[in-house]
Design brief:
This protein is mostly helical. It has 5 helices and no strands.
Length: 142
């Protein structure tokens, strides 16, 4: 059951990240004005939006590759999940130091914090799954 849920979550995160990244790459100004709260973070910067768009495409591809390559799943899911977690923590830091009001936390949750939580969760499952699939190594003393 957890395997099916994890694979669906990975697929959803992958497709959503790729779609977001493509939107950022091909219509950066439209993305900037479409995503709630982005306009309050500073002026539009096409180069910056496209840079982050590339990251989202890579994140999405990594989640999808983790589905296709179970033996590399931990790496393919851990790397984007760590970036997503860092991104979410950065949003919390901005609130903690007074750059943003606390009201941004619930607004950002679905697109920033939730993907990080989901990514870390499926990565933890993949680690546990990988460990349970490996034969137990017992220490032996001469």
């Amino acid at each position: 059951m957890m395997k099916s849920i994890s694979l669906v979550v990975a697929f959803t995160l992958g497709v959503a990240a790729i779609a977001n990244g493509i939107f950022m790459l091909f219509a950066p100004e439209n993305w900037y004005f479409a995503v709630p709260g982005v306009t309050t973070t500073g002026p539009f910067n096409q180069h910056f939006v496209r840079d982050i768009g590339l990251i989202f495409v890579f994140i999405g591809v990594a989640f999808l590759l983790g589905i296709a390559r179970p033996e590399l799943r931990v790496v393919f899911w851990a790397a984007p999940s760590l970036w997503l977690a860092g991104h979410a923590l950065f949003h919390f830091w901005e609130v903690a130091v007074g750059i943003c009001a606390a009201s941004v936390i619930p607004r950002d949750f679905p697109a920033v914090t939730l993907p990080a939580i989901l990514g870390l969760s499926i990565t933890a499952w993949a680690i546990a799954e990988q460990q349970s699939a490996q034969p137990s190594k017992q220490l032996s003393f001469p």
